[in-house]
Amino acid sequence: MVKEVSVNASAEHAFKVFTDGIDRWWPRQHHIGQSPLKTEVLETRLGGRWYGISEDGSECNIGKVLVWDPPTRLVLSWQLTAEWQFDPNFLTEIEVTFTAEGPRKTKVVLEHRKLDAYGPAAPAIREMIGADTGWGLIVNNFAAVANGE
Amino acid sequence: MTNHAKAFNALGDPTRRLVFERLARKPMPVGKLAKGLAVTRPAVSQHLKVLLDAGLVTLREEGTHRIYRINPHGVEVMRAYLDRFWDRNLAAFKAAAETEPFE
Fold first, then answer.
1. How far is Cα B12 from Cα B7, in angstroms, rounded to an integer?
2. What ipTM, to 2 d.p.?
3. Range of the domain at A131
4. Measured between CB atoms, does A147 come within 8 Å of chain B?
5. In a mutagenesis test of the B interface, which of A2, A3, A107 is the best target, namely the one with the most B β-carbons within 10 Å?
């Protein structure tokens, strides 16, 4: 899926607001935590985490920074399943490009891809693996170690 | 109308989107769904009918309960949802980027 928006600002500024300033525009109602969203955070570096902080202080992961190339290109992982749960083994990607069309005009193109991950096999496999028990636990632990967490 | 267009249109209504988001987090019957929403139960039923018609939601009888959940076999479901989602978010981003200077 590809979306495009024209922003009346420089590419540098648009990139900065999209990343460092994500808390300024990220929708409040779209939060996966139990209590309301207090702050949306995108760590502004390669490998940086993307997460929300709830008012109760808990953190809800969304994904990570896969490509950090300011002010022109950004790739994030979006690892929320259709049940709105963060799953380290689930991966879709968001690529955002910022193309200067003038000193104060930037074309921003966002592509959310690898959406086939939401296909029919996905829930069945997750159910089979299980979330917190047996193989699910082992796989999740392995993923945590493999990711250096 | 294509399935995608139908699903996309169905998610244009904010209350319907809220109903969909609640069901995405947890399958539930209409009574439970209506609790905490600022609309009547018949209105919720009507929204569910639209979501069912658009293939976004499925219905399963479990004993005496009719449980609604989001269509688990739907790449199209998530595509339609995220389509709406990014439209709204990019509009909010544009507004933020064009208003005050950002330090």
1. 9
2. 0.78
3. 119-149
4. no
5. A3
- Amino acid letter for position A139: V
In a shared domain, residues A103 and A146: no
Per DSSP, the residues of A70-113 read TTTEEEEEE-B-TTS-B-TT--EEEEEEEEEEETTEEEEEEEEE
pLDDT in tens, A79-92: 998 877 899 999 99
Question: Which H helix or E strand runs over A124?
Answer: helix A121-129
Whether residue B97 and residue A18 make contact (CB cut-off 8 A), yes or no, is yes
The CATH number given to whatever domain includes residue A60 is 3.30.530.20
Domains and CATH numbers, chain B: 3-95 (1.10.10.10)
Specify the pairing of strand A49-54 against strand A59-69: antiparallel
Query: Per the confidence metrics, is the pTM higher than 0.90?
Result: no
Strand, helix or coil at B103?
coil
Q: What is the tally of structural domains in chain A?
A: 2
Please write the tens of the pLDDT for every residue from B33-74: 998 788 899 999 999 999 999 889 999 998 888 999 988 766
When pLDDT is cut at 50, 70 and 90, the band that residue A75 belongs to is very high
- C-alpha to C-alpha distance for B54 and B44, rounded to whole angstroms: 15
